[in-house]
Amino acid sequence: MTVVFNERNKCSSCPIRHRAVCARCDDDELALLEQIKVYRSFEAGQPIHWRGDELTHFSSLVSGIAALTKTMEDGRTQMVGLLLPSDFVGRPGRDTVDFDVTATSDVTLCCFKRQPFEEIVEATPHVAQRMMEMALDELDAARDWMVLLGRKTAREKIATFLEMLVRRSHVENMSIPAIDLPLTREEIANFLGLTLETVSRQMSALKKEGVVSFPDRRHFEVLDLAALHDATGDDADGGMIV
Amino acid sequence: MTVVFNERNKCSSCPIRHRAVCARCDDDELALLEQIKVYRSFEAGQPIHWRGDELTHFSSLVSGIAALTKTMEDGRTQMVGLLLPSDFVGRPGRDTVDFDVTATSDVTLCCFKRQPFEEIVEATPHVAQRMMEMALDELDAARDWMVLLGRKTAREKIATFLEMLVRRSHVENMSIPAIDLPLTREEIANFLGLTLETVSRQMSALKKEGVVSFPDRRHFEVLDLAALHDATGDDADGGMIV
DNA sequence: CGGGCTTTTGACGCCGCTCAAAGATAGTGG
DNA sequence: CCACTATCTTTGAGCGGCGTCAAAAGCCCG
After folding, report:
1. Which among B92, B145, B233 has the least Cβ separation from residue A72?
2. Residue A115: CA atoms inside 13 Å, Cβ hemisphere, count?
């Protein structure tokens, strides 16, 4: 299940070098991190952390997608975060997290042992500053998400979600490429605070209207970007940041 | 409308000295902050910032309560943060915020001019570390809030909200003191992703069941704490942090 | 006492959830 | 290569919780 890479991949050639928690580190600081890092891989569907488990490592997501979810006693589940490459896993200043972290696709993490990492945070301002920035960015995203959860209709939620994926895929306009749909219907439902049936129905509706198409279950194409945006309920400039 | 205090209140006797962004500062660092700080007051209902306005000051909330809200084109409004004394207003690394900040009660802020404050953040690790901690705490709260918005019923939302106020009032058990209800029904609705009518109905239901009572519109008393907790939908230990 | 606000309560309808079943798709072993 | 199965997805029927609209009641301040 968990595969540990022993190759000593150089940070300097790391794909998330300039975006992760180490983004602002100079070479000396990077060398410190390099000494305490270990790569780990998880297959799609594998748990990375359970809520409440002691957190022995912090890590940066190098590749793949992971979900943070909270589940109520009776099974109702809400996704509370979606981790993309360069995002940070862990909670300095607390020794557990109170959500589950699950690999949604195959995932590679760059793990740091907790103790030495926290010492580095104390010692190197660049890391604390970068972590503050990343936490604030996540907070901004969480706040947009709260508007979606509290106030948007099912249709608007789906349209907003698809538009977010479009924006994130950094697609050149003109062409209509198939965009990856990295979650199952159930995961999308847990992301958006809906049931999977409602997700499916709203997607079918957008398809019937010619706004999007679904070549297969894990991809979609945008046929009418303006119509998609209209369906999000957001204003012209788009307030959503994710 | 906006009253500027010119008194030079000493940081050392500040009520939020040990919890705000300056919590970890030593005397020298505090002296730097003291030079650039100015107090400002806002009356209940006054706007503190508008979404998108340039952010000339950062600040700590010294007393009172302020709300962060986002409003959609058609008027649907969602509260995305509730600021209590010691909470920070502002977004280092960005020159606007994309929500409105409103004084919900009479409010006093300890304001720092932006430019010099950001220099201090760069220069003093204690401040960046404290801001990271505060951002992560807010993120935890936002995640619990997302579960509430996405998955809880109206009844559970109201019960969770009231229980949060109880917890925050740090009330000695035994007695049944009147607890402050710092928001109007409409503000509560915007906080919880409901309409004000539903808020009123659910409160009436809890009252009819003898779980709480409402001596007047701005206060409530808990008559049955266990029943209140049962109504939240949370597990026995309570996962909510706010 | 009267006007404007907030809050409560009622009646009704719709959106999204529940329950149920059929249809796709992928993986497995003969 | 084709069943056979497990899983994911779609679609349908029906219902109920919460929103909408409306009006009455309570409260504050002049």
Report:
1. B233
2. 0
- Categorize the per-residue pLDDT at B2 as very low, low, confident or very high, splitting at 50, 70 and 90: very low
Helices (H) and strands (E) in chain A, counts: 7, 12
**A153 has a chain B CB within 8 A of its CB:** no
Host domain of residue B209: 153-232
Q: B140 and B71 in one domain?
A: yes
Environment class of residue A118 by beta-carbon count within 10 Å: exposed (0-12), middle (13-18) or buried (19+)? middle
Q: Which of B122, B143, B230 to mutate to test the interface with A (most CBs of A within 10 A)?
A: B143
pLDDT the model gives residue B215? 94
Q: What is the pLDDT of residues A204-223, one digit of tens each?
A: 999 999 999 999 999 999 99
Query: Of B146, B180, B214, at which residue does a domain stop?
Result: B146
Alpha-carbon Rg for chain A, nearest whole angstrom, is 19
C-alpha B80/C-alpha B77 separation (Å) is 9
Quote the number of domains for chain A.
Answer: 2
The confidence score (pLDDT) of residue A6 equals 45
> How much is the pLDDT for A237?
63
Q: Report the predicted TM-score, pTM, of the whole model to 2 decimal places.
A: 0.93
